[in-house]
Design a protein that fits this description.
Tetracycline Repressor, domain 2, Arc Repressor Mutant, subunit A, globular, mainly alpha, 199 residues
């Protein structure tokens, strides 16, 4: 790794920390420069603009989160899917600010013109991890074949991410929100998904 790579990674680490502590819309390049001890011009040497830096932080978080999802182990394909879907809950419990970031990241990307090709390519790694476990489960008889497995994956992943983002970003807006346990809500959705998969 070159010195330039190390500095670029340091800026990404610093920005990611700030985005998780505060919000994507609130943190400026000046804030990142101050926190990293670098000049704003130095940051612009590594990133063409704020959008590129925000996406670099999202990629870093994808990589960190992926460790949980890609470590899905078990004897059967179903057990591996339990671990895969369980990673959504583990991440929600240990780092809810990640889902808040994702909510803000989506809004930021809608409002700004940013290149999301690399981010989208990395998202496919999660689908690949799902399908490896799913196919193993169909082969070993522990998983029920879905009519459209790709649609099943996208529907369940989007539902889980949307629920986690809502619970992490919105907090308790109305009195009904105070009655439930957020982690239990995520766990319940995972149980419903897994019951659809179990052979």
């Amino acid at each position: 790794m070159t010195i330039m790579d190390a500095k670029r990674n340091f800026v990404i680490d610093t920005a990611t920390k700030l985005f998780l502590e505060r919000s994507v819309g609130e943190v400026t390049i000046k804030d990142i420069a101050t926190a990293s001890g670098l000049g704003e011009a130095t940051i612009y040497r590594y990133f063409s603009g704020r959008g590129e830096l925000v996406v670099a932080c999202a990629l870093k978080l994808q990589e960190m989160v992926g460790a949980r999802f890609f470590a899905a182990t078990g004897k059967s394909g179903y057990e591996r899917l339990e671990a895969f879907y369980g990673a959504y809950l583990e991440e929600f419990v240990s780092e809810p600010e990640l889902y808040r970031f994702l909510s803000e990241f989506d809004a930021y990307c809608i409002g700004e013109k940013v290149d999301l090709d690399e981010y989208a390519d990395n998202i496919d790694r999660f689908k690949d991890a799902f399908f490896a476990s799913y196919e193993a489960g169909v082969a070993d008889g522990s998983v029920r074949r879905q009519e459209d497995a790709e649609l099943f994956y996208y529907s369940t992943a989007h539902a889980l991410i949307a629920l986690c983002k809502k619970l992490a970003a919105e907090g308790e807006l109305i009195r009904q929100d105070e009655r439930g346990n957020k982690a239990s809500e995520v766990g319940t959705l995972i149980s419903i998904i897994l019951s659809s998969l179990r052979a």
